[in-house]
Amino acid sequence: MKSGYKKIVLIGVLLWQVLLLAGCDYYVSEQPAQQAPPFYNRDSRGRADTIGKLGTYSISIPAGVIDGWARYMGDPGDFADPKIKARYQRPPESYDLPIESFGFQYRITDGDVYTSFRQTQQDYRHDNETLIPYGKPFPWASVSVYGQYDATTPLNFNFTVQNEFKLAKEITHFDYIQQEQLLYGLTVYRANNGIDPKTGEPWKSDGNAKDILLKKDHAGNIKTYIKCEFTQHKNFCRHMFYNDNWHIQVWISYNRTYLPQWQEMEGNIIKILDSWRVSREGKLLGKQIGKT
């Protein structure tokens, strides 16, 4: 009797172990597969690049180039509720993760970019110390790049410029007058034809009195939109342009001394972005500008 009872118990234990193992196998098989981490290109110091998809193309931005950090689509804004920021979980990084924006410093004189722990870092610091305090033109431009992902939004500044002219007339009560001569290939509009209506003399300090310079494509769409201050104490340009191939909008800020090079800047910035392009697996398609 006891021997039979032991056999029943033993069979029960073995059956329980089989079921347990089967249950474990079932549990494991039901777990979502872990996504393999992406391959990262790295610099000579071992720092990983920033990766993602900018507009049309996957890119790998060399470590030490980005001024601040890259923002991805869906990331909470800088002034978002801290509780929202605490709960937010960004999707895993990949070469398909859409980049909303990032910034970097571009050297106008040779088309290079600032990278920390590279000679350009020393160059940038030297220019800051020896040029800016003495009012000399600073050869660096601040660049911000924005991916455009809404297919319904036109890649031009047509509405922006029309609205600018409309607000000038309604709020500050002057018109923007188109000038007869092009400037560096750009169509120029001057506030009240360049004259301060209060003094009857050229604008000197009014923050609303920026010159507007435009470049249109063959279809008549405004692709380049530049606002420059030409008063005696303010001498900066804010330069914006669209690139259809990349599906991006770019903002550049620089000393007006370098306005004649506006077209070269646009071409060089696209050249820089092209040098950061990769395959979806992260393989570089060329030599990265700014790599240490």
Would you give an account of this structure?
The protein has 292 residues and is of the alpha+beta class. Among the domains are: 1-31; 158-243, no CATH class. Helices cover 26% and strands 24% of the residues. The chain is built from five helices and 13 strands. The protein has helices at 2-30, 82-87, 119-130, 158-172, 262-275, and strands at residues 50-54, 57-61, 71-72, 99-107, 140-147, 176-178, 187-191, 195-196, 201-202, 211-216, 222-228, 236-243, 248-255. The chain has a nine-stranded antiparallel β-sheet, with helices on both faces. It has a two-stranded antiparallel ribbon with strand order 1-2. The N and C termini lie far apart (82 Å). 25% of the residues are buried.
Short description:
This protein is of the alpha+beta class and 292 residues long. 26% of the residues lie in helices and 24% in strands.
